[in-house]
Amino acid sequence: SWEVNNPTQLQTVLSALNTIKTSFNSKNGDKQVSLADLIVLGGNAAVEKAASAAGYTNLSVPFTSGRVDATQADTDIENFEILRPQADGFRNFRNSTGWSVASTEALLVDKAQQLTLTAPELTVLVGGLRSLGANYDGSFNGILTNKVGTFSNDFFVNLLDMSTVWTVDSTNEIFTGSDRSTGAQKWKATRADLLFGSHAELRAISELYSEVGGQDQMVVDFAAAWAKVMDLDRYDVKKR
């Protein structure tokens, strides 16, 4: 029921996946599927669909089954409450009622460290997720593309576009990107997004993906980084 998980939307999705799980397991004897595996499979399918829409019809996101589902009885609710996210830069979420001494971008980097991500993996995951429109609550912050749902490097191209000037609002969290010549508003972005233009190392990686041909490498790197995150803590899976 955490805000970051969009509880209403989450219930709809979980209901659909549980229906699939029940139907599959009732027909396949010893071959059973867990809800955890279906969640990952659903994400993989979304990535492959977005890649296919961009012309990458042969992309196959690695998947290894074997996850199991925890029950409510297995869950220590009080201890889990400590894990409630105050921010999730991967989905451009920031809890406005929460408290944290850390900046939005620092919390993103901290989460990336917890996920054992390298700087290139962090960069490609954020850029790819923005092209998929995978933001919290359908927000358009950081969605720097006109073709949401189609995998692209538009996030990097438009973030680094020198014809765009960025100005921050009164919260010091949301930025408006406007045409430098006409003043026309083009984009909205957060501190987590602009990190990839302001931090020297992350900007260098972003420039690589923004180049002509950079999207081809980006889609491969995204699939690999995505699979890595999906297999974190899988002691039974050989690390790629």
UniProtKB/TrEMBL annotation:
Question: Which top EC class applies here?
Answer: oxidoreductase
**One of this protein's Pfam families, by short name?**
peroxidase
Keywords associated with the record: Heme, Hydrogen peroxide, Iron, Metal-binding, Oxidoreductase, Peroxidase
Gene3D superfamilies in alphabetical order: 1.10.520.10, Peroxidase, domain 2
Entry cofactors:
heme b
- Any GO BP annotation: hydrogen peroxide catabolic process
Q: Which residues form a coiled coil?
A: none
Q: Which reaction does it catalyse?
A: H2O2 + AH2 = A + 2 H2O; 2 H2O2 = O2 + 2 H2O
> In terms of domain of life, where is this protein from?
Eukaryota
Identify the GO cellular component terms for this protein.
Answer: cytosol
* GO MF annotation terms: catalase activity; heme binding; metal ion binding
Record InterPro entries = Catalase_peroxidase (IPR000763), Haem_peroxidase (IPR002016), Haem_peroxidase_sf (IPR010255)
Query: What Enzyme Commission number(s) does the record list for this chain?
Result: 1.11.1.-
Boundaries of each Plant heme peroxidase family profile domain copy? Answer: 2-210
The UniProt family comment states: Belongs to the peroxidase family.
Q: What is this protein called?
A: Peroxidase
What lineage is this protein's organism placed in?
Eukaryota, Fungi, Dikarya, Ascomycota, Pezizomycotina
